[in-house]
Write a structure and sequence with these properties.
globular, cyclic-guanylate-specific phosphodiesterase, 9 strands, binds magnesium ion, alpha/beta, 12 helices, about 290 residues, eight-stranded mixed β-barrel, binds ligand C2E
Amino acid sequence: HAKQFGSNTVQFYRDSLQGGSRERLLLEAQLDKALVRGELEVFYQPKLNVAANRLQGAEALVRWRHPQRGLVSPASFIPLAEETGQIDAIGAFVLREACAQARAWQQSGVAELRVAVNISMGQLRQDDFVEQVGAVLAKTGLPAHLLELELTESQLSDDVESLARVFLRLRALGVRLAIDDFGTGYSSLGYLKHLPVDVVKIDRTFIHSLDGSGRGGDAAITRAIIAMAHNLGLEVVAEGVEAQVQLEFLREHGCDEIQGYLIGRPVEAAILANRLRGQAAQQACAMSD
Ligand code: C2E
Ligand code: MG
Ligand code: MG
Ligand code: MG
């Protein structure tokens, strides 16, 4: 079960979340300490640009390195942090960390990688969220076009107008915006017309059953999402790609980027950096051939 949520993470807090308020309070207090003690870490999962066959992006995914329990999945503590408001501090940490990392990779010549950071609706609703993002970009020196913010579709509110105003201000900074877990959250697609976004990420539940035959509801939905997004001038990313046949299907239908265990699991920054250096070396060889 635990494996479902990423590499080597455990889900020991599921019971706590569903349990009584005593456990919740305990977890909340532990999470506060985790931030202060530096137990939170950011892992990076690469994204492949399908046409260029190159790693061009990475998603930042938070992990809790718990002294007793090992690596804890965000699925075990992000929902609680969203309820308690701790997500503001956690999210700010991940944003800073991810931007600093992407800038370091750019400056050291490892790669010019676009980094994607997950943002909860609670964070976005802070009065100064846009200023926070601007300040992080200024402080780290990361060019805005190398930052992408992912917002989960199911968290988009009915108040599309006020959301659109925040999105416009973020885009004015030069940041890219993505709708995460696309296809699972909303009963109406009308919001896409009003929200200035750049990318949709097809939810992995649709990708899971793709077997290369092109048959079945998920294949039809995947094709439809790609076509619709492209007609709207948006890029499409598929998440949860685990098999070569899925990659082929997505390539055939023009999906722009893919992400999933087939390309790489979420890993520590240093491990991804090694891979990126390898890619850069290969590229250099190919050019001198
Ligand atoms: P997400 O943003 O949709 O991230 C993708 C999740 O799918 C990640 O789980 C990733 O490890 C997993 N995944 C990637 N490729 C595959 C694959 O091929 N197969 C399968 N079965 N799974 C794959 P993870 O890291 O456990 O994160 C879960 C969720 O927690 C994320 O879903 C995101 O909504 C949330 N999250 C993670 N980090 C943050 C953060 O810093 N801030 C906020 N607000 N949410 C976060
Ligand atoms: Mg995401
Ligand atoms: Mg997702
Ligand atoms: Mg997801």
